[in-house]
């Protein structure tokens, strides 16, 4: 008797009907970005001590994310133009080149340029993976696919700090980037092999949304310049200008023939609009934890790079565990999880503002559990809700749009955290006083953003006629 493909949204259904190679490739693509972020967060105090430039500490993440934003924002259109197979392979090779440059860089400028290239390549890889999920997987398996991606982050949270901590404590942090260069080449090979020639090979006539991409770059760069302004008024002005440019991008996108976001994304009354706003605000509010957590813990609590990395990685572990635990929920539960997740993550930001200045390792662990747990409860269901509201080409644009919004939120959050930290004295070097001030204000001043994310989550889940 012939085997009948399962249609029940189970794990067997995820890899059924020939989807296993694509599923494996998506996991590999997500891995190189997930592990990279955690390794870099762990080794950055060593990089700063070796290359100097504590004022640019946050740009190791913000520069990476700026490249990722530009890549993620164009991934949907590039996938249509060049095809998933060729585009993913080329993006992974660009990521590898960036890793090599950071590994060989003699100064902070070359190191940061390498990080931008890593962001471009890695952002495109993740963006193409998001497009592949939207195009190659049915709605019924999406919560489990996103739960699997969360699982990849969980594995990275266990191995990333270990790898970064070992390299940092041995004084050979450059080898971490050689390690990722090799992996990126592996992803390029896998994309070439696992996406058969002729499938989603692309439409050479597809155009890119250059005006919107330019506004995103300008907006993130303006917020990033607030990082090094060294003056509260100028930092505030640059941040406000950056936010205005990002809002202008949304307004412009809705009126262009070639769009980065689905129709209606500029309205909080629509599912995509409310969903993207929730993702952006929650992500931006969470960035200070991973970027400055290891440095603060090493300075105030006397932890090694390895130990501090693992304490901060509890955020990703909580995201993974709770994401997998709730992936099977249906009916009214997804709405409840979206709302609960936003509230729980906001409590994590609030507790971080208390735990880091007090150098309470237990408090930081609890904050990480709340912060990551909030994302684990809600993220897959937010993604499912957005994609389920879209059809046809809008679905591909929406899938890539989620990556764009998440990465933009990450870049804005990283740049804002950097500006706050430098105003708190972090740019003058690591000391107990600067670490304590940074630990307070990076989280206290971002709390209103998290609260806005809670409001957006309730708008996303509001009943619609």
From TrEMBL:
The UniProt keyword set, sorted, is: Membrane, Transmembrane, Transmembrane helix
**Main location as per UniProt:** membrane
**Compartment(s):** Membrane
Is Membrane set as a keyword in this record? yes
- All residue ranges annotated as the Major facilitator superfamily (MFS) profile domain in the record: 22-465
Concerning InterPro entries, the annotation shows: MFS, MFS_dom, MFS_trans_sf
Q: Which Gene3D superfamilies match?
A: MFS general substrate transporter like domains
Which Pfam families has this protein been placed in? Answer: MFS_1
Q: Where are the transmembrane segments?
A: 23-44, 56-80, 87-104, 116-138, 145-163, 175-196, 208-226, 232-252, 273-297, 303-326, 338-356, 362-382, 403-426, 438-458
Q: How does it sit in the membrane?
A: Multi-pass membrane protein
Q: What is this protein called?
A: MFS family permease
Q: Which organism is it from?
A: Phenylobacterium koreense
């Amino acid at each position: 008797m012939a085997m009948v493909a399962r249609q029940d949204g189970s794990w067997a259904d995820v890899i059924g009907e020939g989807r296993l190679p694509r599923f494996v490739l998506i996991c590999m693509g997500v891995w190189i970005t997930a592990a990279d972020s955690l390794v870099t967060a762990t080794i950055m105090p060593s990089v700063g001590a070796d290359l100097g430039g504590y004022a640019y500490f946050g740009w190791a993440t913000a520069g990476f994310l700026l490249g990722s934003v530009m890549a993620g924002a164009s991934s949907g259109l590039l996938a249509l133009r060049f095809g998933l197979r060729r585009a993913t392979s080329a993006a992974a090779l660009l990521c590898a080149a960036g890793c090599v440059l950071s590994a060989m860089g003699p100064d902070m400028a070359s190191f940061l340029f390498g990080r931008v290239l890593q962001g471009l390549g890695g952002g495109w890889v993740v963006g193409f993976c998001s497009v592949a999920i939207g195009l190659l997987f049915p709605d019924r398996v999406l919560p489990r696919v996103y739960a699997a991606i969360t699982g990849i982050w969980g594995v990275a949270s266990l191995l990333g700090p270990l790898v970064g901590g070992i390299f940092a404590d041995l004084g050979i942090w450059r080898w971490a980037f050689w390690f990722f260069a090799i992996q990126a080449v592996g992803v390029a090979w896998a994309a070439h092999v696992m996406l058969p020639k002729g499938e989603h090979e692309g439409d050479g006539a597809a155009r890119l949304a250059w005006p919107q991409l330019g506004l995103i770059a300008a907006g993130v760069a303006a917020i990033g310049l607030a990082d090094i302004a060294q003056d509260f008024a100028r930092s505030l002005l640059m941040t406000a200008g950056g936010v205005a440019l990002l809002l202008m991008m949304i307004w412009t996108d809705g009126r262009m023939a070639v769009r980065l976001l689905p129709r209606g994304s500029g309205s909080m009354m629509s599912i995509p609009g409310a969903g993207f706003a929730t993702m952006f605000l929650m992500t931006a509010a969470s960035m200070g934890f991973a970027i400055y957590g290891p440095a603060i813990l090493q300075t105030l609590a006397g932890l090694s790079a390895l130990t501090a990395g693992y304490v901060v990685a509890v955020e990703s572990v909580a995201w993974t565990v709770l994401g997998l635990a709730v992936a099977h929920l249906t009916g009214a539960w997804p709405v409840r999880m979206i709302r609960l997740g936003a509230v729980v993550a906001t409590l994590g930001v609030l507790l971080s503002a208390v735990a880091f200045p007090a150098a309470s390792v237990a408090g930081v662990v609890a904050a990480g559990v709340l912060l990551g747990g909030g994302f684990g409860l809600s993220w897959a269901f937010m993604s499912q809700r957005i994609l389920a509201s879209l059809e046809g080409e809008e679905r591909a644009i929406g899938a890539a749009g989620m990556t764009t919004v998440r990465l933009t939120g990450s870049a804005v959050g990283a740049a804002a955290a950097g500006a706050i930290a430098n105003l708190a004295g972090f740019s003058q070097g690591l000391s107990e006083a600067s670490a304590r001030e940074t630990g307070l204000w990076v989280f206290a001043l971002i709390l209103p953003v998290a609260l806005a994310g809670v409001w957006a989550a309730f708008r996303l889940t509001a009943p619609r006629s």
